[in-house]
Design goal:
By secondary structure, this protein is an alpha/beta fold. The chain has twelve helices and 15 strands. The strands form three sheets. Strands 2-3-1-4-5-6 form a six-stranded mixed beta sheet, sandwiched between helices. The chain is elongated, with a radius of gyration of 26 Å.
Length: 443
Amino acid sequence: MAAAPPTVAIVGRPNVGKSTLVNRITGRRDAIVEDTPGVTRDRKEIEADWAGRSFTLVDTGGWLPGGTDLDAKVTRQSEHAIAQADVVLLVVDTTVGVNDGDERMAALLRRRSGATFVVANKVDSQQREPDIWEFAALGLGDPVPISAIHGRGTGDLLDLVVGALPPAEDQLGHSSGAEAEAGQDDGAVAFSVAIVGRPNVGKSTLFNRLVGEERSVVHDLAGTTRDSVDTVLSTDAGRIRFVDTAGLRRRGKEAEGPEYYSLVRALQSIDSSDTALLVIDSTEGVTHQDQRLAERIDAAGSPVVIVLNKWELLDDEQKETLQHQVADMLAFLTYAPVLKVSALTGLGVHKLLPALGQAEEAYSRRIPTAVLNRVVQAAQAAHPPPNAKIQYATQGAVHPPTFTLFANRELPPTYLRYIERKIREHFELGPTPIKIRVRRRGG
């Protein structure tokens, strides 16, 4: 049984530098950083290490109880991370000093039994160090001075964190989040699934329905998810990593600030994931933005499952209209299964995992050359190509399945679509894209 890494949660009020500290520790731009408060809203788990110890870093949204409904949901995410963490870093702003939010969070942290450090951020010079002692009044020990943006003091902080982690042998069987609830503690991830779509189509609600807990913040404000949030889930198909992405609203050249970085993260998630769930709001129909996003997924060459969310809100006439829209505007994804679901009620969601398992299996399928040639020759005998002949066929690659046809002349696109359909039908490659290439040979 493999040992799960311990968790280190980074918490604090909005805009104290939590995401900057995450990026400093990982050495990458894993978290979106912007001067606007409230950019981080979900829990984001990132693998990190220091001095030979690996741990899971949990970036959280700003803790802001008593605010709006959205603030309350973000706050619950922070509190959930605190409850599961082995070590908690309470980040405070030295340039501002102690305020009511810091005191209320410290009162919450004083009730936990695990290690907690007060991280006095924005100590950009030695002259600012005396200012940190104001935070000793929080009752959580001596504050640790750092400058996350410049890296000052972060090495000393990480030494303290590693020293407070449970011994490596105590990690056995320890895990957090949906992974623990699923009883998952060993084995590699089978494949990853990016949940993509326009803002406010129900991606986060679907994500939470699939992983079985409120991991992403769900709210009726468009654009709530600003970053990609991922969770590994144990299923009959193996360990699946679900990635909840930010809604894609604008083209890259039009996006600004946090929205630009959200766009970059979402596109990275599409490119790095094995499969995509394209979520469409059934009540709005297929929009041009949906179409552009579908084209982006198709260009990535990954399998895709089209999810028509909020299906239960349509009458019979609207359902028929929507199905015509899908067939027309997403015609280039004819291989993709179309599932009608309600992320809110759970209607049809049970069909997603089998569809994803099928897609991944087909994506990795390798077909014996002799069998492939029998299918291609039978298709050619039933419907010969105009003034040409396919002499031989072979599969050159998987991810996606890629086939090369050796022919004595060029084959028209309509004939290639015919051959693709025959290969897809015979080998049941339904929910995955396939590529067909033609090489000319004399004869």
